[in-house]
Amino acid sequence: MDLGLVNVFPPTPLNLIGGLLLVAGTAFLLLGGLGLVRMPDLFNRIQAGTKATTLGTLLSLGGIGCLRPDWSLKLLLIGLFILFTNPLSSQVLARSAHRLGSKKSPLTRVDRLAEDNGEAP
Amino acid sequence: MSDLTSLMALLLALAILGAALVTILGRSLPIAILASGLVSLCASVLFLILAAPDVAMTEAAIGSALTTFLFFFILGRMRRELPDAEFDDDPATAAMGAKAASAPTVEETPAPGAKVHG
Amino acid sequence: MVETLILLAASLAGTAFLLALWRFVKGPAAADRVVAFDSLTIISITGILLVALVAGRGIYLDVALIYALLSFLGVIVIARYLEGGL
Fold first, then answer.
1. Apex CA B82: angle with CA B105 and CA C81, to 5°?
2. How many domains does chain B have?
């Protein structure tokens, strides 16, 4: 299969580490997508769809930073933004779903926010 | 284009098709707005594959973000000023799945001690 | 060797994209679709990075930067709308 790579990446240790980090990151993305399909209710889907994909994107950014060290400043900026904004959006969404009373699966047993509010879990 | 980018473009075209079908066939207005945002997202990556980063940047900022914000702001204001308008036709896909799904069943089967006014 | 790893990474990211798209099309409630939309945005950031790596052009990373900045604003606006506070 022709990748059409512009740059040639010789198998130096740094390039190999970068490729392995890239594969590890996209494997975490795949796990996040699988959790998004397989998880039983909304709160578990938020966990799977946000935590795993954040880790996967950060690992991929690290891998591409190893493959192309001249891009590392911009990659660092992207990683910083993802690290700041992604948990924020998932928290806002989960709080909104909890406040609206989204259905919980019978497998979801712990609800600390309801316990803090003095309701039955 | 190489084989890899051709395959990625094929996947993105499939995603655009699916999102456009959700936009047209879905019965709920917020879901349709969300799906049209997804069309813009995939179109932006497709522009990037076609080597037009400026068009992709504009599509990402305006098509995927600003249009979605604007639609949701307008929808929220319409909901505030027209309280009896119905934006969510389908009770199975209503906002969070719990309220609208449980409300009709409560109406259909009242509690045994409840008296019906009339 | 590195080319094989890049190809493997691209296929894994494509599979993740398809799975999240399945949740977006199927998802019973609007909030499920919002979660799927957020995940699709993050997965396409990785896709943009792979396209930039293959094409060898650093200017493509600016699009990924815009996505990293703007995706969370969209999710927050949608969550506020669903909550009824907009």
1. 70
2. 1
Q: Do A71 and C19 touch (CB under 8 A)?
A: no
Contact B27, B100 (CB under 8 A): no
Enter the pTM of the model: 0.85
Of residues A3, A5, A101, nearest to B98 (C-beta): A101
Q: What is the spatial distance between Cα A108 and Cα C62, in angstroms, rounded to a whole number?
A: 40
Is residue B117, in this structure, part of any structural domain at all?
no
Give B-chain residues touching A102 at CB under 8 angstroms: 96-98
Positions of chain B with pLDDT under 50? 90-93, 97-118
Closest chain B residue to the Cα of A102, Cα to Cα:
B98
Residue B108 exposed, middle or buried by CB count within 10 Å (0-12, 13-18, 19+): exposed
Q: Which of residues 16-45 of C touch A (CB under 8 A)?
A: 16-20, 22-23, 29, 31-32, 34-36, 38-39, 42-43, 45
Residue-by-residue pLDDT tens, chain C, 86 positions:
888 899 999 999 999 999 999 999 887 888 888 899 999 999 999 999 999 998 888 899 999 999 888 888 888 888 888 887 77
Position B18, amino acid: G
Please check whether residue B84 lies inside any domain of the structure: yes
Give counts: helices (H), strands (E), chain C: 3, 0
Q: Is residue B118 part of a domain?
A: no
